[in-house]
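Suppose a colleague, Dr. K., hands you the sequence of a protein chain of 290 amino acids and asks what its three-dimensional shape might be. Before reaching for any lab equipment, you can write down a predicted structure in token form. Begin with the sequence itself:
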Amino acid sequence: MNNIGDWQFYNHAWVPSVEPHTVPDLAPLAGGELFKQGGVLARYTTQFDCGNETEWWYIIKDKPFDISELKSKHRYVIKQGEKNFETKLINPLHYKEDIFQVATAAFADYPKKYRPQLQKDKFMNDIEEWSAGGGVFVYGAFVRNNGVLAGYAVLSKENRCLHFSILKTMPIYEKMQVNAALVYKILKDFEIELTNGYYICDGARNIQHQTHFPEYLEKYFGFRKAYCRLHVAYAPKYKRLIKLVYPFRKLLHLFDGITKVHQLNGVLKMEEIVRRQESENGKHSRAKQV
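The predicted structure, expressed as tokens, is then:
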């Protein structure tokens, strides 16, 4: 499905194709153009990095990284990664099979309820697109003693944001700090950009996957939460369904191991966040009137 204006179709939903600090043009949503093309919902955010703690955020790094500011045990982790891996920019076309093997091993470690089924032909086409598009940077981490590709990362550079879109590593090398080696190299290479107003974004709050990677980035590399406000709109045929099942969201969590239920629970979690936001807005409005 093609992009429409500032929107792209991803995983049955319309999400902004613009940088996180930019509010997308809402006309295609308001006019119904998006849902005419399909999809369950549209999600976007406003008030990026508002300064107030909210229930929705992006994980960002907007300052140069200074390893000397870390605790000694955290510095040790990063130095171990540097010692064990050679991390560098690569041409992904030269490592297509190796990248596929890393992704296969990484996804095999995912819980079954959201483990993707890799289609090799499509995956290889994705690698071709990384090479074809400008502003895309692919890093590889190679085991120093045998040259095996142990992990890779993909970033895309826009006007102000560096999207940290993919980082996959082989689980057997994680204790050797392959993740630290990749992240540290990226932060060193983009130090000038971080000094001049860019920020690296690891994405929005993740409610579908059980991952500690955002906390890892915060703990070891000084990433932080850029709080914002979440907005969700539903295609007409799904709007009534969400309204009907919302009161049973706690019951549905008992069946979260089922893939479709897990996906629905993610939508209901977003709906819950939006409703709490609206409730808080109502309280603030009434307080101002008083």
